[in-house]
Write a structure and sequence with these properties.
single chain; mainly beta; seven-stranded mixed beta sheet; 3% helix
């Protein structure tokens, strides 16, 4: 496992944009690791938002964010990003980054399941409101 930390959350009006970052606070985050973003709103289950497996340039997105969110990585800095556009109130949640040394995220079934991932950050709050 690796200790992760997110940043970039905040408050934004509907239609606005935010860019989240995730970095390893401790431990090693390998280039070949599965990486993903999840979110959880009060009273709801944790939802897979986007995942990436860079050895094969494979990424998956939840239907609710497809076309609006983009997952990417700065390989040199070893930072994972989630770029969010056209934000709506339904996107309000605590956003978590996740990573795993296994390759389950290369498959569409496992990529956006929380139990696929062993390493998690503490989360960053995103609030979309008028």
């Amino acid at each position: 496992q690796v200790e992760l930390v997110e940043s970039g959350g905040g408050s934004v009006q509907p239609g606005g944009s935010l860019k989240l970052s995730c970095a390893a606070a401790a431990g090693y985050l390998g280039w070949h690791w599965c990486m993903a973003w999840f979110r959880q709103a009060p009273g709801k289950e944790r939802e897979g938002v986007a995942s990436a497996y860079y050895p094969t340039n494979t990424s998956y997105y939840s239907d609710s964010v497809k076309g609006r969110f983009t997952i990417s990585r700065d390989k040199a800095k070893n930072i994972l990003y989630l770029e969010m556009h056209s934000l709506q109130v339904e996107d309000s949640a605590v956003y978590y980054c996740a990573a795993d040394h296994r390759t389950s995220c290369s498959d569409s079934y496992w990529a956006l399941l929380a139990r696929t991932y062993q390493s998690w950050g503490p989360g960053t709050q995103v609030t979309v409101s008028s």
